[in-house]
């Protein structure tokens, strides 16, 4: 079979209804497609068997993680070209390149052309899923036990791996970049600027008590305690994050002012707090639990206390019943994670009793942050593979690159929502001028 690339191209173009924008190189060393473009490399026929046994997103995701398929050249360009092909055929919703490719393999025309796919795939049993795939207990979503499993899958993969990707700040949410006037032009500076922005929006003062929900490796509580004199409690469901954060706190000499707990937000019973930060955590809550989450953090605040909720948002759909979690993300990146439109988040916070005082979009900031994380990963690729696995490193590379493009193209966003548990007197303690946070 010396013409596999040409036959695969013909099959793909039948599905897309347009010329394939990438060149294909197949396992038989054949190549076909436009020159000068990124190359979609089909390393093994097993990739096609994965699609036959699991048509759609999951089969394709497994092929990528297992290294059965790859991209040679600029991954960002490849994903953008794939997205463009789907738009040309009239897809109604803008997609990232990753989502476009996943949509293509679900197309009925691919299943209709299954005979050709079978001939190309050759004989073989269903391939086993890569070991990096999440294993979860059955039953309802977002129980205490299942959420802990999901968080462990994503975060308990080695603190050193995250050091290489995130850099010294160890902040796993979007940074706050500057133009050069404020000096926030490196990842470390921009992450510090983001932490300081949160502290200023919360109007933190010495002696106050802060709760950081989903504290990660402790960066927020460290910054708040060191720079603003607060006492802080940070909670996470990741044992590895907690151990790392406690070590950093001890080295900073702040153990008397900062406590790190392995605890779910639903288990906190020692409120109230003067302020609560939730940075990149609420995506894990789930739509079925979001009202409970909003009510819980409201109850944990003192009257007049502020919540800073920093959360990724998807674009609203015409038919919200049609929303489906991407299988690649669900199986390999954030098990059970869900995104909601920012309008729904604001509404649910208000329904819980909050007064929402400010919403700030940081969409472009996240795109810049993700590109820096991808660059860090590629710079430390060999070590990242050794620290985790080839499949795990491939998951993070694809996920972060595709996400960067999604933020750049306005397919998803990220917002900081500042809300107050306004007392009955109506005195919210907010400045008269917007964004004058002090």
Protein topology:
Elements: H1 4-16, E1 23-25, E2 31-32, E3 39-42, H2 46-53, H3 57-65, E4 69-72, H4 75-88, H5 97-104, H6 108-112, H7 114-121, H8 144-155, H9 159-166, H10 187-201, E5 209-213, H11 219-228, E6 231-236, H12 239-251, E7 258-262, E8 273-279, H13 290-299, E9 301-314, H14 327-333, H15 342-351, E10 355-361, H16 363-379, H17 381-387, H18 390-408, E11 412-420
Parallel strand pairs: 1-3, 5-6, 5-8, 6-7, 8-9
Antiparallel strand pairs: 1-2, 3-4, 9-11, 10-11
Helix pairs in contact: 2-3, 2-7, 3-14, 4-5, 4-18, 10-11, 13-15, 16-18, 17-18
EC number: 2.1.1.-
Protein name: Class I SAM-dependent methyltransferase
Pfam families: CMAS
Give a nutshell description of this structure.
The protein is 44% helix and 15% strand.
Characterize the largest beta sheet: strand count, sense, and whether it forms a barrel.
7 strands, mixed
| Rg calculated over all Cα atoms | 23 Å
Q: With helices defined by DSSP (H or I, 4 residues minimum), what is the helix count? A: 18
Classify the helix fraction into a percent range. Answer: 40-55%
Protein name: Class I SAM-dependent methyltransferase
GO molecular function: methyltransferase activity
Family: Belongs to the CFA/CMAS family.
Pfam family, one: CMAS
């Amino acid at each position: 079979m010396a013409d596999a690339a040409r036959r695969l191209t013909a099959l793909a173009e039948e599905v897309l209804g347009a010329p394939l924008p990438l060149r294909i190189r197949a396992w038989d060393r054949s190549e076909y497609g436009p020159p000068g473009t990124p190359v979609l490399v089909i390393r093994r026929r097993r990739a096609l068997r994965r699609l036959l046994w699991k048509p759609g997103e999951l089969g394709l995701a497994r092929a990528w993680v297992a290294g059965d398929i790859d991209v040679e050249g600029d991954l960002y360009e490849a994903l953008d070209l794939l997205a463009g092909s789907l738009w040309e055929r009239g897809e109604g919703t803008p997609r990232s390149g990753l989502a476009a490719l996943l949509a293509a393999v679900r197309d009925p025309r691919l299943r209709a052309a299954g005979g050709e796919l079978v001939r190309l795939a050759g004989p073989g049993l269903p391939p086993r899923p890569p070991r990096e795939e999440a294993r979860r207990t059955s039953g309802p979503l977002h129980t205490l036990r299942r959420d802990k499993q999901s968080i462990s899958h994503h975060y308990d993969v080695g603190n050193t791996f995250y050091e290489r990707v995130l850099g010294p700040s160890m902040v796993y949410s979007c940074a706050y970049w500057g133009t050069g006037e404020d000096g926030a032009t490196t990842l470390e500076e921009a992450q510090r600027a983001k932490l300081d922005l949160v502290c200023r929006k919360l109007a933190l003062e010495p002696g106050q008590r802060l709760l950081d929900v989903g504290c990660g490796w402790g960066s927020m509580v460290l910054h708040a305690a060191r720079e603003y004199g607060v006492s802080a409690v940070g909670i996470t469901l990741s044992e590895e994050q907690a151990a790392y954060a406690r070590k950093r706190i001890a080295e900073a000499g702040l153990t008397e002012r900062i406590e790190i707990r392995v605890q779910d937000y639903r288990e906190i019973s020692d409120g109230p707090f003067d302020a609560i930060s939730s940075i990149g955590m609420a995506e894990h809550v789930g739509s079925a639990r979001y009202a409970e989450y909003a009510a819980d953090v409201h109850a944990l605040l003192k009257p007049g206390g502020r919540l800073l909720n920093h959360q990724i948002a998807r674009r609203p759909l015409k038919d919200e019943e049609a929303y489906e979690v991407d299988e690649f993300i669900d199986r390999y990146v954030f098990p059970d994670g869900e995104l909601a439109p920012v309008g729904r988040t604001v509404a649910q916070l208000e329904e819980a009793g909050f007064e929402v005082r400010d919403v700030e979009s940081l969409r472009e900031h996240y795109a810049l942050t993700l590109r820096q994380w991808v660059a860090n990963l590629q710079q430390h690729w060999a070590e990242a593979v050794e620290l985790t696995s080839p499949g795990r490193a491939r998951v993070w590379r694809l996920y972060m690159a595709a996400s960067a493009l999604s933020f750049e193209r306005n397919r998803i966003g990220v917002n900081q929502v500042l809300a107050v548990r306004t007392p009955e007197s109506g005195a919210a303690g907010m400045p008269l001028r917007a964004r004058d946070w002090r």
